[in-house]
Design goal:
- This protein is α+β, with helices and mostly antiparallel strands.
- It has 4 helices and 9 strands.
- The longest helix is centred in the first third of the chain and has 23 residues.
- The protein is elongated and about 70 Å long.
- InterPro entries: CFP-6_PH.
- Pfam families: bPH_6.
Length: 209
């Protein structure tokens, strides 16, 4: 962890983000193809649609959280955050999943809170893990009970916060070598480069071309 490699684990993002991305992608292509094939080419339209598609991917499709054995990776529009279980001291869910580690708060853009449910928040330094019995949650051992049927749980901050707490508690009780303490946030070069290129193309298309 702490690098830009993709950890093996369970990726979490709302199904609606994929649906919105797919619909908007088709709509964007429906605008781009005729614009590129029609003379003279409207570069203002082409660059505007391109920028819109890039922003859609960055802020709607890309954000996700990846839960794996040692911790969680938050994939946000421009940054990637790697946190291992021992570093997380607080879990919240006001508007989205929020994790406090090493005195800093990190928000998972890809795990929004359900406004119809009470917000979730507690300090893990003073209160034991909350063992919520829900589909998608894990037991204190860090695994799903054998008798519990596997269901596709809704990706929401409240339920994921409960799972994170259970995994933190399981990591505390685990025997063997301790999990390394990592709380690392980095800029994603691909996302930053893509946004810069789309903005530059937009300026050229609207102002210059």
């Amino acid at each position: 962890m702490g690098d830009t490699s993709r950890p093996r684990g369970r990726a979490l993002r709302p199904g609606s983000s994929i649906a919105v991305g797919a619909v908007a992608g088709v709509a964007g292509l429906a605008l781009l193809v005729p614009a590129l094939l029609t003379e003279p080419v409207s570069w203002a339209l082409v660059s505007s649609v391109t920028l819109a598609l890039v922003l859609l991917w960055l802020f709607v499709v890309r954000p996700a959280a990846v839960i794996h054995d040692e911790g969680i990776r938050l994939v946000n529009p421009m940054r990637v955050v790697d946190l291992t279980w021992p570093t997380i001291t607080e879990v919240r869910s006001k508007w989205a999943l929020e994790l406090v580690a090493e005195g800093k708060k990190y928000t998972a853009w890809g795990v929004p809170a359900d406004p119809g449910r009470p917000k979730y928040g507690r300090s893990l330094l003073t209160v034991p893990a909350n063992r919520m019995a829900k589909a998608g949650s894990v037991s204190a051992s860090g695994t799903r009970p054998a008798e519990e049927p596997v269901k596709r749980a809704k990706v929401e901050a409240q339920s994921i916060a409960a799972e994170v707490e259970a995994r933190i508690e399981a990591d505390r009780r685990r025997k063997g070598d301790p999990t390394p303490r990592i709380a690392h946030q980095t800029w994603d070069p691909v996302s930053v480069g893509l946004l810069v290129a789309a903005l530059a193309f937009f300026v050229l298309g609207v102002v210059v071309l």
